[in-house]
Amino acid sequence: xxxxxxxxxxxxxxxxxxxxxxxxxxxxxxxxxxxxxxxxxxxxxxxxxxxxxxxxxxxxxxxxxxxxxxxxxxxxxxxxxxxxxxxxxxxxxxxxxxxxxxxxxxxxxxxxxxxxxxxxxxxxxxxxxxxxxxxxxxxxxxxxxxxxxxxxxxxxxxxxxxxxxxxxxxxxxxxxxxxxxxxxxxxxxxxxxxxxxxxxxxxxxxxxxxxxxxxxxxxxxxxxxxxxxxxxxxxxxxxxxxxxxxxxxxxxxxxxxxxxxxxxxxxxxxxxxxxxxxxxxxxxxxxxxxxxxxxxxxxxxxxxxxxxxxxxxxxxxxxxxxxxxxxxxxxxxxxxxxxxxxxxxxxxxxxxxxxxxxxxxxxxxxxxxxxxxxxxxxxxxxxxxxxxxxxxxxxxxxxxxxxxxxxxxxxxxxxxxxxxxxxxxxxxxxxxxxx
Length: 435
What we know:
This protein has helices at residues 2-17, 35-47, 52-65, 69-83, 88-98, 105-117, 122-128, 133-139, 143-155, 159-171, 177-189, 193-205, 211-223, 227-239, 245-257, 261-273, 279-291, 295-307, 313-325, 329-341, 347-359, 363-375, 381-393, 397-409, 415-427, 431-434. It is mostly helical. The model has no long low-confidence stretch (mean pLDDT 87).
């Protein structure tokens, strides 16, 4: 009883003084039920001030007193802002928010985005596809949820189905930029950059183009050999004070590839100064620093972000590659194992894992890993290329050629696979065909 009285008195004084930073020192089990109304007012005030740590403490007290779905969703979103997309604690609270009907589309969309960051989009698909058709149709009138659902389908390898869903909404006059962005990205990756550009043009005509679609437009223009035009587009938006990290990332990448790493670094520094640097710009920064001969600095930067809890696969991949090239394959493998444990491994980390395993003399294991991913429907060119190279070096050029043919049929062959194909054809005594 004394603890209950003291806790409620402490809450009253903190509320009166608006000293919300100390809310985390209280225990929900000691607070009265009528405290919830005050906590709701406090969370509303804190949302406008950007104090996420105090907001988290207030929301944790709220859900500790009563399991309110709205509070669970707010708490999940707050945890993701603090710890990053896909955080374990956020997923727990999204699930609790969805445990009590009715289910709201914006909660499902946030939950789905969290799952996508973890590489677990299948969970969203399973939930949505278990809902009765009438309710599902109603939920999918929310274009944001449609966009997240389609991305989950993409993640599951159901890209054609995701594309049909987006196309259907676009033809029904949906004006959600993410639908246009994701469908244009799908078309570009499917080797249809002209169609992708037409779709992005349509978004611009509808007045719904945003920095995401503009960033993708630059990528598509580069794909079409119009790199200078793409760079000019990004530069214009940056000079207009756009603060979208993808614009800075893509332009810095363009500059790096154009042999201008100093300019690329200056642009990435500017993104940091503006407070918009993210895991992608940080990852690219490491690559640029390596290009400038500052590899140790790049490694230290990545290590710091990883130890701070970053969940971006590119940071793990780049650091593992650095370790592998520095003759430390065991450390590289440990880092890639950690990415797997965190649930953030992707095709790039899996491909690199195979290279590291080969370096450790575990080529058969590396081959088995690649074969499994290819059998599961992977469309990552590097996996096909690395496995074909392994087969060729193992004296199996016929099998290597079959694999490279499959990459061509899937539309994912690139200059590297075509070059390797020529080498394999020569090994088979078909040099004239190779040339």
